[in-house]
Amino acid sequence: MKKWKKKIISLLLPMIFVFSACSDTADSGDEPLVIIAAETEITITPSMTQVSDFVSMNKNFTPVYPDDMCYNITPSFIADNSDFTIFKYNESSESFLLYDDEIYSIGRCLGGFGITSMALADLNQDHQYELYYTFSWGSGIHRSQIGYFDPADKEITVLDDFFLFSDIMLTVNKSGDLCVNGTFFDSYSDVNFTLEAQSILGTIVHERGKIIFHDRRTGTLFQEWDIF
User: Is residue 206 a part of any domain in this protein?
Assistant: First the structure.
């Protein structure tokens, strides 16, 4: 009887070890990627890296301004941690994302500054970064909005929430939240500027299968303003 007990134990031990190892692997994969964004300020510095190749690829875009120059404005923290590359034109403020050899127009810009800040976050916890960004537009009624690109389905989504007559930027706080802060855009160039975070307006979160903006000032979802 003792021999049979020893045999059973000897057979079970490897199985227990394998189950434990598999559990550890599964648990380690459940953690979302750490949010990467500016903490207090973001500096956009233009470069000519990949610009010639991008312009050659971007055949569907026809510049309206004769001196509309394209620049690579990808921050180092985006370039070092993802395959996203962001380009912006200095006169029109038209902004584009290059990902997996495909070009995506990101952020309305007419009457505004176009794309103003960026961040990487895995809010849907699928273990790959989405690109989050803020942009401003609106002739007469200046407004800022939040958009994101999900590489899983290669779709651009713009949140319904907007901020009238103000500019916003993305940051990460000490708790690791993706935050939306007020800011002030004061620059002679839409491709070469620094934004400093002011008061926090809220956070971007994943709830009930959707990416939403949560207003920290009221504790409720941001309510849209009625515009004409």
Answer: yes
**Residue 131 in contact with residue 122, Cβ under 8 Å?**
no
Question: Which residues of the chain register pLDDT less than 70?
Answer: 1-30, 218-228
Buried b (16+ CB within 10 A) or exposed e, 42-58: bebebeeeeeeebeeeb
Which pTM does this prediction carry? 0.82
Q: How far apart are CA 152 and CA 6, in angstroms?
A: 50
Q: Total domain count for the chain? A: 1
Q: For residue 12, tell me if it sits in a domain.
A: no
Residue 17's pLDDT is 37
Structural domain span for residue 123: 44-57+69-215
Task: Note whether residue 86 is domain-resident.
Answer: yes
Q: Specify the length of the chain in residues.
A: 228
How high is the pLDDT of residue 112?
87
Q: Which residues contact 116 (CB under 8 A, 6 or more apart)?
A: 133, 134, 135, 136, 144, 167, 168, 169, 183, 185, 195
pLDDT at residue 53 in the model: 97
